[in-house]
Amino acid sequence: LKITGLEKIYRTEDIETMALNRLSMEVKEGEFVAIMGPSGCGKSTLLNIIGLLDDPDAGSFQFNSIEVAHFNERKRADLRKRNIGFVFQSFNLIDELTVYENVELPLLYLGIPATERKQRVEEVLEKVQIMHRKNHFPQQLSGGQQQRCAVARAVVNKPKLILADEPTGNLDSSNGNEVMQLLTELNDGGTTVVMVTHSEHDARYAHRIIRLLDGQVVMENVLS
Length: 224
Ligand code: ADP
Ligand code: ADP
Known about the structure:
Belongs to the ABC transporter superfamily. Macrolide exporter (TC 3.A.1.122) family. Residues 4-224 form the ABC transporter domain. By secondary structure, the protein is an alpha/beta fold. 34% of the residues lie in helices and 29% in strands. The chain contains seven helices and ten strands. Strands 6-7-8-3-9-10 form a six-stranded mixed sheet, with helices on both faces. It has a four-stranded antiparallel sheet with strand order 2-1-4-5, with helices on one face. It is globular. Residues 10, 12, 17, 19, 37, 39-45 line the site of one adenosine-5'-diphosphate.
């Protein structure tokens, strides 16, 4: 990811908010980066743009060496579905679908044939250790199990990039550590991870911490 001079301005009635103020940063393939900063500094706005959910007002954003800053919604969605897995603080599972069905959904969207779907869903449920829960609904799972299911859904289409927004925000420390361990394993397998977090503890799983203030990068810490 190569981001240069990114700007995002929200206009509401009479107020203009410069959420991203000529922000520049880079994330290399295979890196694990944590983004930190106080509430309102632009973390969610940045993650939405990196995740191709929203577009910037100015600046350049290269994804895999492709300039995507001016992509329309259809082109963004196409790139997003094939390349990016999302993990949210609130899990965002569909309550009416079982664990298995939740994880299968991204593969249905991509039109993957049934036999391959089954094989890939089962492989990833084994990996996050909730195979024994595949026919349960999200509400029947503990928070940690729900987040492991959400991670399974995020990675079932083998994305190059995982975007995690406060992935342990609703978990106790033991379940939180399990989810961080899982993200680390996926990163060890070559997947790039970009995570927004308020937790200095979680940030230490990353290779690098990028700190934002008022829509700009103000500090970077390289970890071991
Ligand atoms: P963070 O995730 O770091 O808390 P955000 O990216 O959510 O920060 O917000 C950055 C700034 O943009 C804040 O001042 C916020 O109030 C403003 N903002 C975010 N989304 C909107 C929106 N949809 N409309 C207006 N202002 C917004
Ligand atoms: P936590 O400590 O994370 O809050 P819970 O007390 O919610 O965990 O759950 C403990 C165990 O009971 C978990 O393995 C969970 O899957 C199981 N469980 C919780 N609620 C239900 C339910 N309604 N049906 C089936 N299993 C459940």
